Automatic annotation (TrEMBL), chain A:
EC id: 2.5.1.18
Sequence ranges assigned to domain GST N-terminal in this UniProt record: 5-85
GO BP terms, alphabetized: glutathione metabolic process; toxin catabolic process
Main location per the UniProt record: cytoplasm
Coiled-coil stretches: none
Molecular-function GO terms, alphabetical: glutathione transferase activity
Compartment(s): Cytoplasm, Cytosol
Identification of the protein by name: glutathione transferase
One protein family per Pfam: GST_C
Organism placement in taxonomy: Eukaryota, Viridiplantae, Streptophyta, Embryophyta, Tracheophyta
Keyword Cytoplasm annotated: yes
Domain GST C-terminal: start-end pairs: 91-213
From TrEMBL, chain B:
GO terms, molecular function: glutathione transferase activity
EC nos: 2.5.1.18
Keywords attached to this entry: Cytoplasm, Detoxification, Transferase
Protein known as: Glutathione S-transferase
UniProt organism field: Arabidopsis lyrata subsp. lyrata (Lyre-leaved rock-cress)
GO cellular component, one term: cytosol
One matching Pfam family: GST_N
CDD domains per UniProt: GST_C_Tau, GST_N_Tau
Length: 224, 224
């Protein structure tokens, strides 16, 4: 494989967006060179060159060209490498539903959780309720399936990586509780299966390091 | 087997670029459909039933299958009706179309309209910020008849429904020349090319009516 064909990924160790791409690459068995980016500190010339529009990670570089936006990248990976692990369904309607729910996670769930955990105290109750309702919606969508993708990890599972791993950590760091095992038995079981998967757990950032960084970034909501 | 009109229904709103782009796609592919105009203020029981998650248009119903979120709907249409393809086959070109479409709806739309209407830091600053985003699109369309190349594609439908036939009418009402020809010759050429296409012309909101509509939207957005 020549230099150009090699896959490079510019990412951030703690970012669920960045990890989505790593998960897709690992699931499909695609080797890649990982480049850690100091996104919050000094953005490298390479980042500014390969993602001039948003100046964010993740950025995938393949065949000398760059692609940004995590779910766009995951879809690119699916389209480019036809391996035994498929991330998106073949059926157009099922495919559309996977894209719809992945977008729902991005547009509604993640924002709601962020506001609930780190927003102003005055809005807390309202935001927690909103996040709770969003998660209830996903609980219903998951139903009794092993994964959102069915028998194997799929597009929505990858998009929802935040819920599978980061949500618990957000709750611990902020002191705000939205999702409990009692209220969300299906999502709870799913998150355990998700983070327990060999390919997924290989890329997850260390919990203690994340908690420390989040606490430093946002401050703990409830005083210790 | 010929499609019957009853097979496809589209719930839309005359002034919504999101629903207009779906109409363009259906017309481009010669798909007969039943159009159901929606009141987006007093939402119908049908809309609430078919799109309980977002309660928005467009909603496509195809042989009983319900889809919403315009990008998801466009991709679905492209997969079901293979003539006049909207998305490129090449994975990289497809990723670029999806990336820029996301940019148009999530960045350009809000910055070039809402921020400008609010003009919190003053109208000059707001226009400058918006024009910086348009420069990216100017570069993207340089040397091409359309974003999709020689024929219209996904990004043309998204950017076409949004920029010249929605935002531009808003700018007119505000007395703003957002993308002057001297600064954006390529984008202006692209708009001229779009206007030559019959199915695009068939799917755009009536000009005067939309200018009035956008003026009302500005009034709602502007700080008191």
């Amino acid at each position: 494989m020549n230099q150009e064909e090699q896959v490079k990924l510019m990412g951030l160790w703690g970012s669920p967006f960045s990890k989505r791409v790593e998960m897709a690459l690992k699931l499909k068995g695609i080797p890649y060179e990982y480049i850690e980016e100091d996104v919050y500190g000094n953005k490298s010339p390479m980042l500014l060159k390969y993602n001039p529009v948003h100046k964010k990670v993740p950025v995938l570089i393949h065949n000398g060209r760059s692609i940004a936006e995590s779910l766009v990248i995951v879809e690119y990976i699916e389209d480019t490498w036809k391996t035994s692990h498929t991330i998106l369904p073949q059926d157009p309607y099922e495919r559309a539903m996977a894209r719809f729910w992945a977008k729902y996670v991005d547009d509604k769930v993640m924002l709601a959780v962020k506001k609930a955990c780190w927003g102003p105290e005055s809005e807390r109750e309202k935001e927690v309720k909103e996040a709770y309702e969003c998660l209830k919606c996903l609980e219903k969508v998951l139903g009794d399936k092993l994964f959102f993708g069915g028998e194997t990890i799929g597009f929505v599972d990858i998009a929802a990586d935040f819920i599978g791993y980061w949500l618990g950590i957000f709750q611990e760091a902020s002191g705000v509780t939205i999702m409990t095992a009692e209220e969300f038995p299906k999502l709870q079981r799913w998150s355990e299966d998700f983070v327990g998967n060999d390919f997924i757990k290989e890329v997850l950032p260390p919990k203690e390091k994340l908690v420390a960084v989040l606490k430093a970034m946002f401050g703990s909501v409830t005083s210790n | 087997m010929a499609e019957k009109e009853e097979d496809v229904k589209l719930l839309g709103f005359w002034a919504s670029p999101f629903s207009r782009r779906v109409e363009m796609a259906l017309k481009l592919k010669g798909v007969p459909y039943e159009y159901l105009e929606q009141d987006i203020v007093n939402k119908s029981p049908l809309l609430l039933q078919l799109n309980p998650v977002y309660k928005k248009v467009p909603v496509l119903v195809h042989k009983g299958k319900v889809l919403s979120e315009s990008h998801v709907v466009l991709e679905y249409i492209d997969q079901i009706w293979k003539n006049n393809p909207i998305l490129p086959q090449d994975p990289y070109e497809k990723a670029m179309a999806l990336f820029w479409a996301k940019f148009v709806d999530e960045q350009v739309g809000p910055v070039a309209f809402r921020y400008v209407a609010k003009a919190e830091k003053g109208i000059e600053v707001a226009i400058k910020e918006a024009q910086e985003l348009f420069m990216f699109l100017e570069k993207e369309v340089t040397g091409k008849d359309f974003f999709g190349g020689e024929t219209i594609g996904f990004l043309d439908l998204v950017a076409g429904s949004m920029i010249p036939f929605c935002l531009a009418r808003g700018w007119e009402g505000m007395g703003i020349d957002m993308i002057p020809e001297e600064k954006f010759p390529e984008l202006n050429r692209w708009i001229k090319n779009l206007k030559e296409i019959e199915i695009v012309r068939e799917c755009i909101p009536p000009r005067e009516k939309q200018i009035e509509h956008m003026k009302k939207v500005v009034e709602r957005i502007k700080p008191a």
